[in-house]
Amino acid sequence: MSQKYPKYYKNVEHLKEVDVYTVHKLFDINDPSGCIQHASKKLLLSGVRTGGKSAVDDIKEARDTLTRYLQLHNAE
Description:
Layout: H1 20-26, H2 35-44, H3 55-72
Helix pairs in contact: 2-3
């Protein structure tokens, strides 16, 4: 599949471990507002972070953050 969809795969052989921030770097997420990174983190870690929020709450926050991204880019 990596040959068929190369943009979906990144070589991580050189890494000992990968966290959500490394994923953002590997996929060159470049958003000065931070909205894309914040929403991605919320989705990747829905309900498992230390804040005690449920997966549904995290997903709603990701949605709200993406809505804000669209507002900032006049794309609504």
